[in-house]
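Morning. Coffee machine broken again, so started the prediction first thing and wrote up yesterday's gels while waiting. Chain of 199 residues, entered below exactly as on the submission form.
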Amino acid sequence: MLIVVIVVLAAAATALDFVARDLTERAVASDVKAATHAQRATVSISSFPFIYGVAVHGRVDGLDVNVYGVPAGLLSIDEISLDVKGVRIDQHRLLADRTVSVKSINSATINVVVKLSSLQNSLASDLGVEVSAPTSQRISFTVHGVTVATIDLTRVPIVPSCALDVTHTGAVYTFSCTVAPVPASVLGALSKATGATQP
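Came back before lunch.
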């Protein structure tokens, strides 16, 4: 009988843990979507048991954050992904108030993917527009050597100011970097907390 009780309690605890993690994922995804004005956002927490880690240590092992359709001036960024490691969360606010407050993040790898549509490519070709990445954080549009527009990727809250590596294949531009620790601007986009800062 004792074994049955233990199994039932363990199953209930596991179910509660999954529910709490799912609710937290949805809350962070909602915050990220609102902060970036993205069409869609998803978050996956890689931490088990979730409740124990948050309640006892105030930590989550990692987050995978993906946002899609992020407006950025002349272009819409197709996808931004963050692989986040070592997240410290305010456990009191999460457990008592059911709000997510990210206090700090050890490191994050960011990938930004921008794809020019066939229409944009056609217009660029017809007008003699050249698309380039002159710095690690900007995409520039030039006509006969004159810059007519620039998009600063760091205006998107979850893209930090860091030395982004740029790769270009056809109409696809990928910007990536790893930053540690993660700046407050990114913490704010992942959290309902205001004025989040590194400890």
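The longest helix spans residues 2-36. Going to sketch it on the whiteboard this afternoon.
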